[in-house]
Structure formats: C-alpha cells, structure tokens
Amino acid sequence: MNHDKTPVLEAIDQYRRSDDYTFSLPGHRFGRGIDDRTAAVLNRSTFEADVIMAKQAVSEAEELMADAVGACHAVFTTCGSSISIHTAMLTVTGPGKKILVDRNVHKSVVASLILAGAHPVWLRPCWDEERQIAHPASARDVEAALEREPDVSAVLMITPTEYGTGADARRIAEACHRRGLPLLVDEAWGAHFPFHPVLPTAAIQAGADLVVQSLHKADGGLCQASMIQVGGDLVDPVDLRLRLDLITTTSPSALLYGSIDGFRRRMVIEGRGLLEEAIGRANALRDRLAALKGLSVMDESIIDQPGVAEWDPLKLSVDVTELGITGYQAKEWLLEQHKLTVQLGDTRRVVCSLTYSDDDVAFQRLGDALEALATDPPAADREAPRIPPLHEFDLEQAMPPRDAYFGETEQAADPAGRISAEMISPYPPGVPAVLPGERFNRAVVDYLRAGVAAGMEVPDASDPKLGTFRVVRG
After folding, report:
1. pLDDT at position 179, please?
2. 432-459 burial, b if ≥16 CB within 10 A, otherwise e?
3. 326 near 382, Cβ under 8 Å?
4. What distance in Å separates the CA atoms of residue 392 and residue 135, rounded to the nearest whole number?
5. Residue 248 CB-half CA count within 13 A
6. Are residues 326 and 201 in the same domain?
7. Cα(188)–Cα(82) distance, rounded to whole angstroms?
8. What is the pTM for the complete model shown?
9. Long-range contacts from 392-397, C-beta under 8 angstroms, 24+ separation
10. Residues 44-52: what's their mean pLDDT?
11. Would you say 211 and 182 are in contact if contact means Cβ atoms under 8 Å apart?
C-alpha cells in the first residue's frame, strides 16, 4: 500500500481549497465565524480544518493503518480511548457474563463493566515488593485463572503499565486462544511499538484480538485520538462498529482523524529513525541519572521481575525515596523550580514519558533539573504515606460493579467493612484503588487518606478530600 498517502488530510485540504459553501454544520463555517480572540489562541486554520465531511476518507485511512501495524482491521475513534475500551468491552461481553480482567486496569474498564453489566473475575497483578508497584499478571497466572474460571467470555489485560512494564502478551494470547477466548489488550501507551524493534512487541502482532491505543500519549495524535485494532477472527468487526455506533458521537472531529492519519504516515516513513534517536537520548539520560547519589532509575533489569516480560525504554521512572521526599513533592518541585511537568508522581517516584518530540535541549533540561534535585533536595514538607503490605490492596468483590453503582447509597466517614459505590482512582495513572462493589478495608482507607495528605489526587471520588466515601446503604 502507498503509505505516503494521507486520505483524511488530503480530504481536508481539498475542501479548504474548494469554492464550496455549507449551510450544514459546523456552524462556525470553517473559521468564518470565529472572533479574533479565539483565533489568536486557537488559530483560525484549526477551524478551517474542522471539516466533518472528511470522515468519508476515514475508511481508506483505517486500511492503511491496519496494514502499517499488522492488524486485520483498524477503527479510529474520536472520544478518547475510554470510548474505545467501552466499545471493545461491549463487543466481547455483556449482561451477566464473566470476563477475566486485569485488576491494574484504567477506570474506563470499570465503567465498561458497569455499562455492560458484566461480572469481573479479577486477575491480580504481580506485586513488586521492593519497588512497591504493580506489574502485569504473568502468563502463568492467566492460565491458572482460566483453569479456575472456565466460563469466562473474554480476557482483558493492560500492557504496558504506567511505569513501562509489559506483559507476555504472546503467551497470554495463546492461552486464551486454546480456549477459543478473545484477548482484549489496553495498550494505551504503546502506539509506537510496531515501529521499532527495541520496543516491546505490539500486542496486535503478539496475537491479541482487540487492541486499544491512545495516539496522544506517546505519539502524534491529538488528545482524544484513539484506535481499536482487530486481529484474528474471534471478534466480528461488524459487531465492533455497531457497538461503537451505539455510544460514540455522530459529529466526529476531522482534526482527530487527521492527526491519526498523519501519525501513521510519519511512523511508516520516518518512525524507525525518530524512535532510534529518542531511545538513544533516553538511555543516555538514564545512565547520567543512575550515577547520581539519591536517585534510583528503572532500567532493563526490571524484566527479571515476575510479570515483566518486556519494558518500554521511553518511560523514565526515577525513585527519589533516598532524598527523603515523596514523588508527589518531587513532581511539585520540578514544576515550581524548573517549569517541568512530569507524567506521574507517586509515593516514591516520578515518571516521565519520553517521545521522539523531545530533542537534545529538552533531555538536557530534564537531566539538569533532576541532577539539581539530587544535589540539593528540598526538605520534606509532608509525611510519606505508609504503603501497607501489598496484598492488602486486594479487596473483596462483594457485589457486581453495576449493582453497587446503581444501588441505594450514602456517604460514610468510616467505610471500613462497607461496600463501595464509587471508584476512587489516584490520577495519574487512573487505576482505581477501590471499585464499586468492593469492600473497604482499614488499610486501604488509611493509605488513601494519607496519600491525599501527601499530594495524591483522586478526582473521581465523591469527596475528593476523602473525608467521606460513597457506600452501598445497609
């Protein structure tokens, strides 16, 4: 196929050059109705490119994308990977059906369970006691779970994690397919994987049946640009599109489609070289930081840990515990002192997402800032939350998520022993610590409250300060 083509971008450009006038939407008439203040900030050409008619070119662009990544089909979405996850989940499961689900999932998966009325069978991640983070479940764990639960309808895994650790997608896909089950992979952080051999194996190439990717996370797509890839014949692509049509917008953004289209072209033509340079810069920065006292940098040795089959070198995870501060404080310090925003700050570390857009100057600036932090760290200004034994995060699923979410509820100051009616998801990464239908225990309540005091953000909680929690009444 001719990957120099960009069908959506070409359709937008053709319309902008034409003498056509529309009395349909969009009402801003491709920039004619935009005031100068809006145009000064957002650029009038943005509105000129908001050509809804360009969606007619999306089918060809999807075919090109599928060819580029080795999928049978590609489906573009414009409401973020949350809508892609909802669509994929509604395709492979439904009311009353069981689905084996990685517990380390994004909150959108839980929302999908509520929408579908499906019953989760939780697959616990591999806890890394030394680093106090969760890695993907191992292929052996998946196999054992499928033996225990022979009536599940599908399997959902997340890989890689926010920290860049990846599951053994190939072996997991084989375990699913031996039982005729589709494997759905949330690969939101991996849209660049197909385009360089050093990066983790792309899930679609490892045998996954549905793969969801976010094009804005490490790549050239605009925010909310997402994609579902289809592999094999266990999922009917017609069913997938019918589910998408059920829940997505009828006025998709040509800007988002165009950004996906342009990303594919660039990756096919230039991707290997761009990613080669980015990986080289990332490795050099990692070597520099590893030599600094007080910082511990995650590297390829993480692959020896249970559950970690692969690792994304474009994730920079820096543990600051030895400096006597939390990752929350380090994140704030980097922003206040060096005007640098990192992807994630947690109890122990900061995580930066590195991309081919970051040049030598950007890498130097980040390295200088982290060196300054290590050389002269700020005094601790808050107590680090105590992380309980990690098995205590494994809460009992006492009710189906949908029943708890839509049940009679109330706010409780002391929820220990009660059934949650809400999600509580420290963000980023947006992985729920508590789900609807799970029973609170004292360790998780104390940890979450200590985390909020230390700088953790929980934007989806009914009470963001966690003075009270939403629970099932009775």
Report:
1. 98
2. bbbbbbbbbbebbbebbbbbbebbbebe
3. yes
4. 16
5. 29
6. no
7. 10
8. 0.95
9. 392/441, 392/443, 392/444, 393/433, 393/443, 393/444, 394/103, 394/124, 395/434, 395/435, 395/438, 395/439, 395/440, 395/441, 395/444, 396/438, 396/439, 397/120, 397/122, 397/435, 397/437, 397/438
10. 93
11. no
Last residue of a domain, one of 227, 253, 279: 253
Neighbours of 293 (CB within 10 A): 8
Non-local (6+) Cβ contacts of 164 within 8 A are: 189, 298, 311, 312, 313, 314, 315, 317, 351
H runs (alpha helix) in 358-400: 360-375
Tell me the residue range of the domain where 57 lies: 52-253
For 127, the token pair is 């806890």
Token duo for residue 53: 């008619």
pLDDT in tens, 31-41: 999 999 999 99
For residue 240, CA distances in Å to 77, 105, 194 come to 12, 21, 23
Place of tokens 């983070």: 133
Tell me how many domains the chain contains: 3
Q: How many CB atoms lie within 10 A of CB 243?
A: 18
The 10s digit of each residue's pLDDT in 271-316 is 999 999 999 999 999 999 999 999 999 999 999 899 999 999 999 9
Residue 46 belongs to some domain of the structure: no
Could you give the angle at the alpha carbon of 85 between the alpha carbons of 84 and 91, nearest 5°? Answer: 90
Task: Say whether 145 sits in a helix, a strand or coil.
Answer: helix
pLDDT at 429 over 70: no
Q: Are residues 346 and 402 in the same domain?
A: no
Lowest model confidence (mean pLDDT) among 24-33, 78-87, 107-116: 24-33
The CA-based diameter of the chain, rounded to the nearest angstrom, is 67
Structure tokens at 218: 């490490």
* Strand, helix or coil for residue 392: helix
